[in-house]
Design brief:
The protein has 16 helices and two strands. It has helices spanning about 20-30, 40-55, 65-75, 80-95, 100-115, 120-130, 130-140, 175-180, 190-200, 215-225, 230-245, 250-260, 285-300, 320-325, 335, 350-365, and strands at about 270, 275.
Amino acid sequence: MPFPFPTPEQANLAPPDAAEVLALSRGIASAVAPAGGLTETQQLLMRAVFVSMTGLPPTPGAPALTPTGLAESLAHRTLDFRRRIVQLMVLLTLVLRPLPPEVADRIAEYASELGVEEGMVEVAHAFAAGTLGLAAMDFERNGCTSQWHPDDAVALHTSGELASAWDSVVRDPSLAEHWRAMEMLSDGTIGRRITEFYRARGFSYPGLPGSAPPLLAQHDWVHVLADYGTTVESELEVFAFIARANDDMRAFSLLAMVVSLFETGYLRTGAGLFESSPGHLSEHGIATRVGDAMRRGALCRGSVDFLRTDWFALAELDVASAREHFGVPPKATTALEAGSVGPWEAGGISPFQMTSGAALAEAAGRPYDSYGAALD
């Protein structure tokens, strides 16, 4: 039976203290552990998220806590807080392959007792059942683009409406010219930097053949804004940042998507362009980097939907001012030590992207400039 929510006067809005972190550790570990106990990747990710978001480490080896016990410990927590906890359970479940059906069932029990309806729990069930096509449909139905309306394309500056969120637009000269015109902006502006970002990697501007869907191109600005490179590992950071910056809980689907693409490979494709490349989240230090990206997103000013931001309206801001506009905090030292790099550093570009950038420069008759990006 769902545990009742507190009244506004009763709600606890303070950060979790040590006692609550212990209860969360017990409840979350009880929900997501397979028969052999938490996997190494689960432990790394759980610790990274707890430390980044609460400042305190989890205690995953503590005694189990039932769904009712966890709900009682969160009696004074709001629906949003409880839903974030369920989303963390889902995240820790999505790194399991195979995903045991009993684990998916268990997180559904915890969600029910907490009074939370979370669409990504359906995705976990589909993965556990091996119905990967159904899981992809569940992402669309429960994700951040589930209520896409053609008017949402206004911020993308496409010449026509988009029937669906991840539609490609490869014949829109006006859109491409919007992007190309930013090459003339002052050095250091975020608009100029995004064009350098594209030129270094051989990316086509939206509106041209071979370009990414305009909605996906929105996340490229975040690479520049939040100082993340463009390897697969950095993509995990970017989408963790984007997902947590948005108070619309459906934005969590973006992080769930990239984990399903770049850790377990449950999804073969996503966001109209990405293709599966498993095993990256479990690499050394990546969980720490993802946890810090979530922290940075959560600390942005207000609720920010970076995918529906009109970036052209901000293009003339220098990057530092753009970060101040959104309240983007610096990376934590632990993330930097774990290898988090920006788009203009060694490790901030892939070999394929550098080769593509050099080919684009040659075709345009200009010298190749990586603008500081280099292979690791």
